[in-house]
Amino acid sequence: MPAFVIVIAVVVAVFAFNAVRLAKKSSSHHFDCPECGVSFQVSFFNYMFTAHSFGGKCSVKCPKCGKTNMLTAVKGRLNA
């Protein structure tokens, strides 16, 4: 099997694994805004295509005050 096929298969597998991992995390975690104190969840699309740090933080925009911060996801789903 050519090397490029193996490389493509590995890249697709890593992308698929990451998409499943982020889908689970986006539906079971929320963020707390330090500016206004509101708790909110982001959609899978927003969670997937935002900047993430190695420390577990991700860049999210608060829907209430509009501030963008690097926040850590808190385990627990919001009831609202």
Topology:
Blueprint: H1 3-28, E1 29-32, E2 39-40, H2 44-48, E3 57-61, E4 68-72, E5 74-75
Antiparallel strand pairs: 1-2, 1-5, 3-4
What attributes does this structure have?
single chain; 80 residues; alpha+beta; three-stranded antiparallel β-sheet; two-stranded antiparallel sheet; 39% helix
Task: Outline the structure in words.
This protein is an alpha+beta fold. It has 2 helices and 5 strands. The protein has helices at residues 3-28, 44-48, and strands spanning 29-32, 39-40, 57-61, 68-72, 74-75. It has a 3-stranded antiparallel beta sheet. Strand 1 (29-32) and strand 2 form a beta hairpin. The radius of gyration is 16 Å and the shape is elongated. The relative contact order is 0.20. The mean pLDDT is 87.
Brief overview:
The chain is α+β, with helices and mostly antiparallel strands. The protein is 39% helix and 22% strand.
